[in-house]
Amino acid sequence: MRMTAGQIPLPGPFRPRRLRTTPAMRRLVAETRLDAGSLILPMFIKEGLSTPKPIGSMPGVVQHTEASLARAVREAAQAGVGGVMLFGVPAIRDAVGTQADAPDGILQRAIAIAREASASEGGPGPLVMADTCLDEFTDHGHCGVLTGDGRVDNDATLARYVSMAVAQARAGAEVVGPSGMMDGQVAAIRSGLDAAGFADVVILAYAAKYASAYFGPFREAVDSTLKGDRRTYQMDPANGREALREVDLDLAEGADIVMVKPAGPYLDVVAAVAARSDVPVAAYQVSGEYALIEAAAANGWIDRKAAILEAVLGIKRAGADIILTYWAKEIAAWLT
Ligand code: PBG
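Above: the input record for the complex with PBG. Below: its predicted structure, written as tokens.
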């Protein structure tokens, strides 16, 4: 350090601000960049709707009809979005989630519609992915089937997941996303897909999924019937080390991509998983993360675009290669 006469230390040659002087300089030295191809847009389709239905707690997000889903996937393709993750809301629910693996179930129809729409715009088009979980299809709203005394039956649920994943692959899903946090779900689905001739279908494993209050708006998005919570299968928000155990197990079971969810409140977990994993790491910016920014922006309390980009950039900087975000299409358009 050089000293002035008044003995105030000056920085000498070391001035980090030099690299922040102009927009061009800041662009040159940016360590992290967003790109449309690594963004995935989650989408909802509801059976029996005649017009798209807005989700009150997620302004700008709707439950799609078949026609509006096709349009929205074409727009995602035009924007260069990397994938769409589909969630289905069936007209009929029962104890075992029969519609989840019905060949003509709403999610299977949505997959076929999305594949066609994705391919219709010329370029590679977004990959078509499906949520592989029973909660939208069961009348009790849990992610698995229940035992006689009302507990979620891990091993009986696995058979349902396998059947669901195979039905999704038959409908054209290129990626399946087991999100139920049952033990052994990745191994079961991998062997089921392989046996059915779908060795190339990718498993995006929800490896570390937390029992999060940030899923609140999603419950409206899928008309959830859940009473109680998912704390016997989703992870305790207090635990970080346990996430690595879940990731290790999913990798050993054959996960192609591992995911952390939610993203923003769990950036430490994203970073730790990225350091550990030799497969791509995804992070899901969930409904509550979306709703917070939209609500603040609607009140004029925050700069919407800047806050969205900063939140998503933070997830990327933490180590996520792939980000699921309800803003995927909008961000992709901003990036071009
Ligand atoms: C379960 C599932 C949930 C979400 C994605 N898959 C809800 C839950 O586990 O309760 C939440 C996504 C979001 O909040 O945006 N199939």
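Notes for the reader.
Residues 247 and 277 are 8 Å apart (CA to CA).
The chain has a mean pLDDT of 97.
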